[in-house]
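Deliverable D4.2, example record:
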Amino acid sequence: MSRGRLGILVGGGPAPGINGVIAAATIEGINQGYEVIGFYDGFKWLAAGEAQHCKPLAIRDVSGIHLRGGSVLGTSRTNPTKSETSMQNVFKVLEQLGITTLVTIGGDDTAFSASQVAKRSSGKIHVAHVPKTIDNDLPLPGSTPTFGFETARHYGVQLVRNLMEDARTTSRWYIIISMGRAAGHLALGIGKASAATLSIISEEFHGRQVTVDEVCDIIIGSIIKRRADGSENGIVILAEGLIEAMGEQGLIKALPDGQLERFGKVLRDDHGHLRLGEIEFGRLMKELLNQRLEKLGIKMTFIDKDLGYELRCADPIPFDAEYTRDLGYAAVKFLLSPEAGKYGAIISFVNGKMNPLPFDQMLDPKTGRMQNRKVNVDGEAFECACAYMIRLEHEDFENAKQLAKLAAVVKMTPEQFKARFGYLAGLK
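Output generated by the structure prediction step:
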């Protein structure tokens, strides 16, 4: 029995496991009587009203791709909701091709676009959205990860371990910028599992203004503490979301007179996000740290490294290969359920059972986005992470011998050191 046509598309940035969702949804869709159509490059061509950028998917087309990185359908960040013309083009193409059910794969921006397809089609098109991001920042139930995160962390740890050995061998420090626009899960996950010297995420500032000066001082404190113990190397992992937390004005304040332009342009994408990849945050921090350390009489070699693009299209580890099969299968199962006629949903799992989350419950009606899942910096998991980092702590300033040892590194008196860096440990 033919059930009509099922469309599949991918939006947003790549993440390991995309092909697993495509394969599972295609196979289950065909097994349930659908003809499956894969759309290339997300909403890009749909928004342009072009129907030719798609292909029928057969089981032989997707057999085995669940173990491959990347996306056989490509992806894009095109936002069709930006204009009425684009949305009308989307509906025109879907109608022209006879699409009655749609599986979208992406983050919260793609989820919003998918929700508008479900809402504005008045039930004619049933929509299931599979959440994807290596940032792990979507508010899925409990501690359920977003697919791609575990793989990205796995390979991120391998890369950082190699850089740690290089740092030890050459007596230098690495400044690693980890992807994670809205939350520090990936930076902290990589840093904690690799035993990096220090990880800094925006959540640890508890919503207050993040300044370039404070982030630099946290790193400098770690360098001083390591040097006081005879170590000349280290690894610092910074979540790229610190750029947004500092804000455009904060960066300009730290780099007045147009200096920020030397590190890239401040641009925004279709969804209004700062294009963080356009700013060379690692190089920026390296230069500012060198300036500050020189004033303290410390010479240090820094290497800056962006970590993220190497991870997004990696072959998924078994966790994500299995997880994405569940998600793709469940997406089709939801589309076949009576609930799909009532609402579009984001597919999630709780204790091995599918848990479809209605768009209306997950998306903020004002922003059109999901509330970001932040790192819980009040829990023991973050407490443990900090316990194994090298940071200036309250005890460093209370122990006279330790304080004198730290102050000697930068040729200060204990009182001067305490006045300069004590605020990092909550001292006034």
